[in-house]
Design brief:
With 258 residues, the protein is an alpha/beta fold. 44% of the residues lie in helices and 19% in strands. Bound molecules: S-adenosylmethionine.
């Protein structure tokens, strides 16, 4: 989902547009059930029926995958209530509503006491507050031995092509390498357990439905300059990934609280 780097009223209306664009889009970032379960498999020491808090859950792409495949309770947190309403609808459809509690809150200031959960989960959302900031703000929610599982955009090349660099420098200036993110784990009270790069299928699962949504959204907001600019920017992201996807991508990281 697009990041917005503006101030005040302009930022509010731009953010409202981004939120309204993503309403009804089931997966709001790169990923797949396969990758969610691959990351879950790296969590090998857990109590029975662990408590998971998921930040930036959106409409529940990962939430539902976890709840369907693993006995646990998930507190699914997002800042945008309509996404949580979508998640609840999907949870009922998938028969896992009793395993999920939704909460509208800011992931940068989670309203939970220390050591409230066994696992912190977040797919494609930590960029909203920054990788290191997210890890350091979430660490207190876990006891020693608890896990964090988080996916984020990363550079996969030391010398990315100029056009990819220009695009991502504007979209996500703090984006860095896998190695740098692993260092941030150690700096925030976690030891890295494992990581992997998301496959091209994971991008297609996000971008293919998004591409048709993009066209419909654009057509239903004819002559709206803000919509035109948002749609073009999302299309650019898709094009950059298609052209330069081997030099920038998404990585899933799992760490253990020390
Ligand atoms: C790229 S989407 C990913 C959603 C979901 N994890 C998925 O993979 O489909 C990022 C999500 O983070 C949420 N978000 C953004 N800023 C947030 C904040 N400060 N606190 C909680 N959620 C936030 C957005 O509303 C959005 O649902």
């Amino acid at each position: 989902m697009k990041q917005v780097y503006l101030m005040s009223d302009e930022a509010d209306s731009q953010m409202a547009l981004v939120f309204s664009f993503y309403e009804g889009v089931e997966r709001k970032g790169p990923g797949s059930e396969v990758s969610t379960l691959k990351a879950l498999n790296l969590l090998n020491v857990l109590p029975s029926n662990p408590g998971i808090v998921e930040f930036g859950c959106g409409a529940g792409a990962a939430t539902i995958a976890l709840a369907r495949n693993f006995p646990c309770h998930i507190t699914a947190v997002d800042i945008h209530q309509p996404f949580l309403d979508e998640l609840e609808h999907h949870a009922v459809r998938e028969g896992v509503k009793d395993r999920i509690t939704t909460l509208a809150a800011d992931m940068g200031n989670p309203p939970f006491p220390d050591e409230s959960f066994d696992v912190v989960w977040s797919e494609g959302a930590i960029y909203n507050i920054g990788f290191e900031q997210g890890l350091s703000r979430w660490r207190r929610l876990l006891p020693s031995g608890g896990y964090v599982a988080v996916s984020d955009a990363v550079w996969l090349s030391e010398k990315p092509p100029q056009r990819a660099k220009e695009f991502w420098d504007a979209e996500y200036p703090a984006m860095t390498s896998v190695e740098e993110n692993l260092r941030k784990f150690s700096a925030t009270g976690f030891e890295p357990v494992g990581h992997f790069i998301l496959s091209s299928t994971d991008w297609e699962k996000y971008y293919l439905p998004l591409q048709s949504h993009l066209v419909k959204f654009w057509e239903s907001h004819a002559d709206n300059a803000a919509v035109d600019s948002l749609v073009k920017s999302i299309q650019r992201e898709i094009d950059i990934w298609k052209e330069f996807g081997t030099t920038c991508g998404y990585a899933f990281f799992v760490g253990r609280a020390v």
